[in-house]
Amino acid sequence: MTVQPMVRAEQVHKSYGPVEVLKGIDLQVEQGQVFCLVGPSGSGKSTFLRCINHLEKINAGRLYVDGELVGYQERGGKLHELPDRVVAQKRRDIGMVFQRFNLFPHKTALENITEAPTQVKKLPKAQAREQAMELLNRVGLADKAGNYPSQLSGGQQQRVAIARALAMEPKLMLFDEPTSALDPELVGDVLDVMRGLAEDGMTMIVVTHEMGFAREVGDALVFMDEGVVVESGHPREVLTNPQHERTRAFLSKVL
Amino acid sequence: MTIPQDTAPPDRGRPEEIRAVAVRHPGRWVAVAVIAVLAAMLVHLLVSSKVLQWDVVGQIFTYQTVIAGLGRTLLLTVLGMVIGIVGGVLLAVMRLSHNPVLSGVSWLFIWVFRGTPLLVQLFFWFFLGALVPTIGLGIPFGPTFVSWSYNSLVGLFTAATLALGLNEAAYMAEIVRAGILSVDEGQTEAASSLGLTYGQSLWRIVLPQAMRVIIPPTGNEAISMLKNTSLVSAIALEDLTRAGQDIANRTLYEIPALVAISLWYLLLTSVMSVGQYYVERYYARGANRVLPETPWQKVRRNVLRLGRVGGAA
Prior knowledge:
The complex is a heterodimer.
Chain A: E1 7-16, E2 19-29, E3 34-38, H1 45-52, E4 60-65, E5 68-69, E6 72-75, E7 78-81, H2 84-91, E8 94-97, H3 109-119, H4 125-138, H5 154-166, E9 172-176, H6 184-199, E10 203-207, H7 211-217, E11 220-225, E12 228-233, H8 235-240, H9 245-254
Parallel strand pairs in A: 3-10, 3-11, 8-9, 9-10
Antiparallel strand pairs in A: 1-2, 1-4, 4-5, 6-7, 11-12
Chain B: H1 26-48, H2 54-61, H3 64-96, H4 100-115, H5 118-131, E1 134-138, E2 144-149, H6 150-153, H7 156-182, H8 185-193, H9 198-228, H10 240-251, H11 254-283, H12 295-312
Helix pairs in contact in B: 2-11, 3-4, 3-7, 3-9, 3-10, 4-7, 5-7, 7-9, 8-9, 9-11, 10-11
Domain ABC transporter (chain A): 7-251
Organism (chain A): Streptacidiphilus pinicola
Protein name (chain A): ABC-type polar-amino-acid transporter
């Protein structure tokens, strides 16, 4: 029995009006892999990440998560758009962590985490709270359960955001520059949590500028520029011995 | 090259507190004097006037028909605001919908009800019976199963409620829409990435945050509504204003009657302002690190501070 890749992209194109952001992305993310996407800003890596849970619609190509098309259904050789309800259902299995955290400011850390389990999965409140406390414990913030996001530091907010995504027990986690908005001394705590997730075998796609993290934790790395995949391979190889001129130029600036 | 042996400044102790002469504000004192004279003149007028008899004002203030009118005014305000808020949220959501039919209908509604005077709308609902004599349930252009006459179904009070409520809905729609648009898009994205549906994310994530922007103008609207209900006296509904007018016409105590009902309006708007303050405070959760003080907490803090200063002196 062959194992299905978690994400498969075939010639994925995405444009905003006349501007083409993704110009045919081909890649494959295996189950349990930590997959790093790096590249200069505007290279389309965040856009690609957002296509995976259908926050953005792709214009051409095919994108599969766990063997199923994202946002569409193929019937009789034609693509049918999925109704919003079904799209929402599929998003439950894909956790996402944002650069700007996007915690719900009117809810406490605990309520942020229990929101989706109680509303989407209809989990009983007590059970959701118990699970949320376990998750807060896991990200080292059990004592902050009753705090509102504005009472937490950036690093703490991002760890709550990770716990919030994990509460839906996703099979895939998307990280969109999770440490870019953080003060340097707070980055480590967030990366530690992500490292722990990777050790537990979570499939993760990480858009990042943290080359140290990519080298140490990543299983695969793709360098993107101007909407195309320039180079891919094992992080250690790509980062230490880049084959392409553009990769070299980028790495010389960030390393 | 010489290295300074001791770079730390010599210890000279803490410098003495600055005790400067405060800037004088002679303009303020002139203003206070002018205002004091004007206030004294006003008080003199209020107390000594033959027209304004305070005992009569007091009697009218608690007169039976005035109290009954007050009840109707309050009921109209509450019903009008309830229809306005529910309708406004509905219209705002429709307006922001991707469905062109829904957003078009909402735009049309707002265009009509915001574009015509409230008094005209009030007359419209009052006289609509002439255009639509009966209202029935049945198949459009086909047989009717049950029917009622418009005037038996839509009485004076219902006509007034509809006019006030639907007009308010058009204004509330724009307030709610502005509130929804003020919430960061990342909130909707985070909610949908967790699997929440559009409705869930609107109701549980976006609207509660939009409330901070929606509440202050809604408080204004509620206060306007209370005063706008006085327009219903034009269709002969016995509200607070009409009750005052009737007494004025009957007894010729015009000024005392006007003062009495004005006092009622002032009292009610004051109570509403306090209510608004507490609702705003509730929705400020999470937005401020520390909740703003309640008026009572403010008073207590000031009194305590005064006590401390007094004790030190």
